[in-house]
Amino acid sequence: MTVREARRVSPAAAFVALLATVCLLWGALATPTAHALLPTPLDPSGQAVAAYGGWAAWSRYDPTTTQFALILRSPAGTISTAAVPEREAAFDVELGPDGGGVAAVYSRCSNAVALVGCQIYELPLAESPSSERLLAIPGGGSLHEPAIWQGRIAFLRRNPAGGSEDATSPTARLPDLLLVWKRAGSPQRVALPASKGSRRAGWPRGLTGLISGLTLNGNALAYTTASGVKGTGAEFSMFTLWYQRVGQGARLMDQATAGEGNVCLPAVLSPTIVGSKLYAYLHACDPSAANLDRWTRYDIRTRNAQRARYAFTSSSDSSITSILPEAGGAIWDSEGVRRIGHLTWTDIGRPKPESFCTHNDLFC
To answer: Which residue in 171, 32, 46, 183 sits closest to 105, CA to CA?
Structure first.
């Protein structure tokens, strides 16, 4: 329409046309955003989520037994309780491909809180009920926090000589060993990162710390370590994200630190490898209670990163223990298990790992 033609339109008609245009624009812009930002609640009592191939698993506290049940969600969306015994603590469950399907692996212990007498079980996932089976992993010991990928099992073995499971304890040097087993022969021990030590920062040498979030994708591993030092009137902690291929050294991807002023300890949660990307959640636990958390997608080769444009918790001191990518969105466990179907990402460059030491020695 030319300027001249526009002048021939009556004011009333012009107003109606303008109103219609505004409505169309609002519908085009606002509606998809509103749908994209509304999470779907899956289980108000769920926690500790794992996901792969359309399946998801998490733990649900059973007040009748005071233990935890394993909950499964199928690709069709059906939520059911797995036909396996309950656990004293939340399941350390991981999902991954096995044969032509998806399997869950987890540990069962004589004391799941202290990680004593733990063995690893596998449960094939299917729409029809299936039975778990004990994995006869050679070498003995107390085994926990497994991950699976096509017959290869990564897991932690308690190391009685490695010190406390309390990450801030001076004795927590290497509480667990990391191994990979191919269902044949003996498990292969993975060489773990250890601190170089810093006299200036008062950080000891040979410290790996508490391993968590272990995940496996083919020949690639990702995990986090938490370590700390207690001094006279001071307490310092470090939380580090690692990527590692079996047979190679670990690569530092990101790191957060905490001092005695923190209202709670930060954490790096749920490492997940998808192709050439590594996902992990930095739970900042900021004293100001501002939401400084970020769910990050790292390029494994360059370590350049993007962050999800979404707040998964109401504040940085809110509880969250797990978050995973799922079909373009995410599934996580703050205020119960929830999922969102679509997320957008923004570039943040290469995150700068925090350190108590020097920039040349990021892992003190």
So the answer is: 183
Single pTM value for the model = 0.86
What is the tens place of the pLDDT at every residue in 4-35? Answer: 333 333 333 333 333 333 333 333 333 333 34
- Residue 323 contacts by C-beta under 8 Å, 6 or more apart in sequence? 49, 269, 270, 281, 295, 312, 330, 331, 332, 333
* Residue 85, token pair as written in the block: 């015994």
CA distances from 324 to 45, 228, 279 (A): 18, 27, 8
- DSSP per residue over 219-232, as a string? TEEEEEEEEEEEET
Instruction: Tell me which residue has tokens 């004990």.
Output: 134
Architecture per CATH, 42-349: 6 Propeller (2.120)
Of 251, 281, 303, which Cα lies nearest the Cα of 49? 281
What's the CA gap between 187 and 201, in Å, rounded?
36
Kindly give, in sequence order, each residue whose CB lies less than 8 Å from that of residue 107, ignoring residues fewer than 6 positions away.
92, 118, 119, 120, 121, 143, 144, 145, 146
Query: How far, in Å, CA of 290 to CA of 300, rounded?
Result: 29
Task: Kindly give, in sequence order, each residue whose CB lies less than 8 Å from that of residue 175, ignoring residues fewer than 6 positions away.
Answer: 158, 159, 162, 163, 164, 165, 209, 210, 211
Encoded tokens for 67: 């233990």
CA distance linking residue 240 with residue 153, whole number of Å: 23
pLDDT tens digit sequence for 311-320:
999 887 789 9
What tokens appear for 153 in the block?
């099992």
